[in-house]
Amino acid sequence: MENGQFSWLTIMGFVFLTFNSGMAIHRSQGDAGSVAFVAVSYLDLLSLFYCLRLYEKSPHNSSQRQIIKVIVWSLTTVLTVMLSYKVAALMPLPVAVIVWAMASATILGGFYAFFLHQEEAQEPIKQQMVS
After folding, report:
1. What is the DSSP letter of 103?
2. pLDDT at 19 > cutoff 90
3. Region 18-45: what's the mean pLDDT?
4. What does the alpha-carbon distance between residue 71 and residue 77 come to, in Å, rounded to a whole number?
5. Could you identify which of 20, 31, 53, 96 might form a hypothetical disulfide with 91, taking C-beta atoms 3.0 to 4.6 angstroms apart as the criterion?
6. Whether pTM exceeds 0.90
7. Angstrom distance (rounded) from CA 110 to CA 75
8. So where does this one cross the membrane (predicted)?
9. Is 130's pLDDT higher than 90?
10. How far apart are alpha carbons 70 and 43 in whole angstroms?
């Protein structure tokens, strides 16, 4: 990505995501629950990618960055819960418990990484190479 433009790989990824979402809706044969799941997942992913881009562009230690961090964690949590629900519904109970445990660990790990873990201040790489 240069000068704020999207790369071809990014565009191809979004085209692939859009095509697959459209095909999933088509294959759902009008099942409202399946259509809603695909539509919400698709919109969640689009929102997540947009917010991640905003997060990368925002200045460090700004209030905007902190708000975007909360939104990104919320979007990933919603997506994790939705996918875990779909997978766990197809599995026997012991495996479903494992799926939910892994989803919980992912959500809590993301919370820890985003909000509790403090990054250590590091010297820029050029200064480390000179020393």
Report:
1. H
2. yes
3. 94
4. 10
5. 96
6. no
7. 11
8. 34-55, 67-85, 97-116
9. no
10. 17
pLDDT in tens, 60-78: 888 999 999 999 999 999 9
- Token pair in block for residue 60: 């460090």
Q: Determine the Cα–Cα distance for residues 68 and 56; give it in Å rounded to an integer.
A: 10
**Are residues 39 and 17 in contact, defined by beta-carbon separation less than 8 angstroms?**
no
What is the Cα–Cα distance from 49 to 52, expressed in whole angstroms?
5
DSSP state of 58: S
CA 91/CA 15 separation, integer angstroms: 31
CA 63 to chain centre: 21
| DSSP state for residue 112 in the 8-state scheme | I
User: How many Å apart are CA 72 and CA 59, to the nearest integer?
Assistant: 16
Average pLDDT, the chain: 89
